[in-house]
Amino acid sequence: MQRSGRKKRHWARWTILVLIALVLISGGIFVYHLYKVTETSFNKMYAPNGQTPSTAIKQGQPFSVLILGVDTGADGRIDKGNSDTLIVATVNPQTRKTVLHSIPRDTLAEMSGDKKRNMQKLNAAYNLGGAKMAKASISKLVGIPIDYYLTMNMGGLETMVNAVGGITVTSDLTFTFNNITIQKGTHHLNGKEALTYARMRYDDPKGDYGRQIRQQTVIRAVMKKLISTDGLSRYQKLMTALEPNVRTDVPFKAIVTGGLKYRHNAGNISSQQLQGSDAWINGSSYQIATTAALTKTANALRRELQLPAKQIDNEETKLNALNPTFDGKNSQLYNTFGLDTVYYTDNTY
Q1: Could you name the CATH architecture of 5-321?
Q2: Contact yes or no for 304/90 (Cβ under 8 A)
Q3: Mean pLDDT value of segment 2-31
Q4: What DSSP string runs through 185-252?
Q5: Which is the most buried residue in 116, 233, 254, 331, by most CB within 10 A?
């Protein structure tokens, strides 16, 4: 599998998709007041992929949802492409906390469910096996059950931000991207400007990690707008904008019966990142999640889901043990011992 550099440039257009998961599963008040419009729109987005849906929301338990931003075009084409934004959101009604855990798209990981042992960049899992493989691969990587998924293609960001009347963010940088300049400071952004703010990577000193932070800033800004009275009045317009761009396996009936139990979570959102180390494999740049970093992220996620701590043991930790000199700084060469056979061309790293 080879990817074009052209696709990569578009990868962050759907970052606002986390909003959908949090509104629909944390903001039960919207379901309560706008039941019929929500049901109609939600039925068009529901795609269980043949898997038995989790009962966590229905039972009011802590749960996880995998947020996937897919690098396809507009017009609702979300069935193919790589998932270049990966966020595991945990929602705990007891602590009233929602935590967004960003995972670097270039993280080396096993494609769980593939017919052969196959290590690739994590964002390839969705391309190879859809949401089912993406859920299984990330579940194995970070050592938690993934209850639900939500995908969105890159065509929806502008329409969604415009649907809520724009958002207010504070930028730490002044930069120009895609012929739009974002100045350092606090600004009100329309959809196209929010897209620019979320997409820029190369002028950020933190690179992809800085972009992840800006993605999460956009998510929180939209959530803040939606939990306001004005946001409620725009809800129908937002749902209409989402229909062609979003797919999820969260059952609507579960939201109706359990959604109100999570209503306080919308106002308490924090962010975390899995930090990787730079590596070169088959001539392409990867991120290696060290065993220490994986353990830290896994146990943070498990605490939020009220699960006991555990020692991570997967293909990644086994390879880490076989690369004792790798540190991502002095040594960036990483040996997969033949488990990675993909060469990414056209500057896809």
Answers
A1: 3-Layer(aba) Sandwich (3.40)
A2: yes
A3: 39
A4: EEEEE-HHHHHHHHH--TTSTTTHHHHHHHHHHHHHHHHHHHTSHHHHHTHHHHHHHHTTTEEE---H
A5: 254
